[in-house]
Amino acid sequence: MRTDIDTVKLTFGLKIHQLRQDQELSYQQLSKKTGLAVSYLHNIEKGKKYPKADKIILLAKALKTDYNYLVSLEGDKRLKPIIDLIHSDFLKIFPLELFGINTPKLMELLSAAPGRTNAFISTVIKIVRNYQLQGEDFYKAALRSYQDLHDNYFAELEQAVVKFKQKHQLAQNAALHPEVLERLLNYYEIAVDRNYLPQQISLREIRSFYSPSNRTLYLNTSLSNAQESWLLGKELGFQFLDIKERPYETRMAEVDSFDKLLNNFKASYFSVALLIDEREMVADIEEMARWENWDGEAFLGLLDKYNVTSEMLIQRLANILPQHFDIKDLFFLRFFGGADLQKFEMTKEMHLSQLHNPHANQLDEHYCRRWISINLIRKLKAMQGLENTEGPIIGAQISRYWGTPNSYFCIAFAKSGHNAPENSSSITIGLLVDDKLRRLFRFLDDPRMPVKNVHTTCERCGISDCGARAVPPTVLQHTRIKQEIKNELEALERSNKEAVKDQ
Predict the structure, then answer these.
(1) Which residues, in sequence order, are CB contacts of 321 under 8 Å at separation 6+?
(2) What is the rounded end-to-end Cα distance, in angstroms, of the chain?
(3) pLDDT of 309-328, one tens digit each?
(4) What is the rounded CA–CA span in Å between residue 277 and residue 175?
(5) What phi and psi, each to the nearest 5 degrees, are found at residue 353?
(6) DSSP state, residue 364
(7) Are residues 276 and 169 in contact, defined by beta-carbon separation less than 8 angstroms?
(8) Are 329 and 340 in contact (CB under 8 A)?
(9) Distance from CA of residue 161 to its chain's centroid?
(10) CA-CA distance, 495 to 119, in Å (whole number)?
(11) Across 397-423, average pLDDT
(12) Is the pTM of this model over 0.85?
């Protein structure tokens, strides 16, 4: 992450670069005027070096400016948007290095043609400010992009799990239950306490907390067997990977560091890979590939086989499919539905290879009720009333996105809330249906496979015979009105041109 000192260096270098270009001076010419080495000037402009006061005086004189301007954090009108970007939270916190981007090189590219970049940068800063985007938003977006960059598969973490199993002599296909994982934590001199959290009213919603001072992992008693396994496996990940900068609670109360968020992801990935063996999962997918018909009950059975939650199973599928079956066009969604089933919130999403049609909408619109993600929550709610079912329940369908050529094969689970059964959530993986996917899963051609036309939100949907619509297509109607006005004006202009020609 960039520090305040880095910001000062970049700002200073940007000014030197701009003044040198304005006066059409080469590095050699500026070197001759100041007596400073060309390599040193080059490092100044890249934000790698910050000269002492006597050298700044030489630069100010050679570039026909004053000392105070060079050392201030302000710039002229042309440079102001770029300097604002340097000082903004975006560039301070966004992990450019993670994506192989060198900050000085980025500044060099931006400053090469500041007139053409000013408007764009100003727009970015205004969006950040107007939508109240915080560091947490950038961190999470960067993590999703990082996953996409690696096709959501991390060989070094997979190999770490293999080494861990070898070290502790764990069988490849053995289901790891909490008692086994707890014994492994004891090897790292970590105790497990299941008594403290349930006794504290304010901490009953906390699933786990690790105390480094007494090397104890505190667990809540409301957890399922599979949830305990994941939390114990995650702590084993932190210990085996020797991760120091990390959160101590299950869900980070405050995402104040990208490194902490990334390390949390690594430990989570380790845990899922530990519980769902890579080779074993590959074999299960190969078995699915032989199905003539979709078998939801068989897929649901994988939860018991591995002793995992539905979210862990879907996440593992999103690791294995890109790496071993070259299925890289996919998305992952998590939804939350309240007791009244009026509004649904997308609480997590990930897209690989491209931005797929289903995506989060922050405009308080109503997500399509034909999505398997939402329809399954509604189905679970009905089952709760009749059978007192908590789930998970499973569903699958092919979703054809209205107005696009894209269809997705979607698998979804729905289950009741952790401590609030009146609330529900769903987990969905969507795979772009193409020739590659059809060759892998022959059951996609089964005529009994549900196929539905869907859209993103009701407000934007043009499906005329939709019986699940929550609200009218107001955004679509507004767009159509604007298009009609545009068409009428264009027709008027054509008519006027023809009239002029006839005169």
Answers:
(1) 285, 327, 328, 330, 431
(2) 69
(3) 999 999 999 999 999 999 99
(4) 9
(5) 75, -35
(6) S
(7) no
(8) no
(9) 23
(10) 37
(11) 87
(12) no
